[in-house]
Specification:
This protein has strands at about 5-10, 10-15, 20, 30. With about 45 residues, it is mainly beta.
Length: about 45
């Protein structure tokens, strides 16, 4: 498990990691869980 530190992005500090993929039109589709998983579970 990896705990990423907060990062300064411009004038604010980011403490969130958001994952997504581009669709056929280049718009970002966010990854979402289809059912609950344990905190700290590995993302494959």
């Amino acid at each position: 498990m990896v705990n990423l530190p907060a990062r300064r992005i411009g004038r604010f500090v980011s403490e969130v990691l958001v994952l997504g993929f581009p669709d056929a039109d280049g718009r970002v589709v966010l990854i979402a869980c289809e059912r609950p998983v344990p905190d700290g579970a590995r993302l494959y």
